[in-house]
């Protein structure tokens, strides 16, 4: 994680999105009301992060952020509702979007593969946020339990009611997943 320059003024921030450095300040076209979701979509031109409710209730805008905890000083990984996060509050952050995980040219991340193999998408609008929430959970905790998955996804909504296959896909990554659930992971085309 890149640490912010200590002489930088509070109106100037530097952060990374998928490894690419971004510098913004209040005098640019980024205002104090500009949120990370809009910056990701409109400035970084990464359209995988979706925007729906703009109230932090649906999880479509979820990204993963590597940040320094202000209390402990320890680096933590957490999922962020980017629709509620002011860009000017992202100083020193390392943000990951769904585009950083994988694609058809370079291969997909295990989380992306699982959600496909479990048929966990219908319209797919919620999928990037769900995937990034799970990615944050896996980054933050070494041995996740199925209960951790259930608690982690409470801020993500699937309007097509695809929760069961989504939960099964993500629970299959837990250390306490049953063998039956883990066996469902195999790709039928292999």
Key phrases:
single chain; 190 residues; 5 strands; 27% helix; Ubiquitin-like (UB roll); alpha+beta; DNA polymerase, domain 1
What report would you give on this structure?
The chain has helices at residues 36-43, 110-117, 127-140, 146-152, 163-171, 179-183, and strands spanning 12-17, 20-25, 62-68, 75-81, 94-96. It has 2 domains: 12-100, Ubiquitin-like (UB roll), CATH 3.10.20; 110-183, [2Fe-2S]-binding domain (DNA polymerase, domain 1). With 190 residues, the chain is an alpha+beta fold. Mean pLDDT is 89; it is low at 2-9. It has a 5-stranded mixed sheet, with helices on one face. Helix 2 packs across helix 5. It is 27% helix and 15% strand. It is globular and about 55 Å long. The chain has 6 helices and 5 strands.
């Amino acid at each position: 994680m890149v640490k912010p320059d200590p002489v930088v003024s509070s109106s100037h921030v530097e952060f990374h999105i998928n490894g690419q450095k971004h510098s913004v300040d209040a005098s640019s076209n980024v205002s104090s009301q500009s949120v990370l979701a809009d910056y990701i979509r409109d400035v970084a031109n990464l359209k995988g992060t979706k925007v729906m409710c703009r109230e932090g209730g649906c999880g479509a805008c979820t990204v993963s952020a590597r940040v320094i905890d202000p209390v402990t000083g320890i680096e933590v990984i957490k999922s962020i509702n980017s629709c509620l996060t002011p860009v000017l509050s992202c100083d020193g952050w390392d943000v990951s979007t769904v585009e950083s995980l994988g694609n058809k040219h370079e291969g997909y991340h295990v989380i992306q593969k699982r959600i496909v193999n479990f048929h966990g998408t219908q319209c797919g609008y919620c999928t990037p946020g769900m995937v990034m929430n799970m990615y944050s959970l896996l980054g933050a905790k070494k041995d996740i339990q199925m209960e951790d998955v259930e608690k982690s996804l409470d801020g993500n909504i699937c309007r097509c009611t695809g929760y069961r296959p989504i939960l099964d896909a993500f629970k299959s990554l837990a250390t306490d997943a049953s063998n039956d659930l883990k066996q469902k992971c195999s790709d039928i085309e292999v």
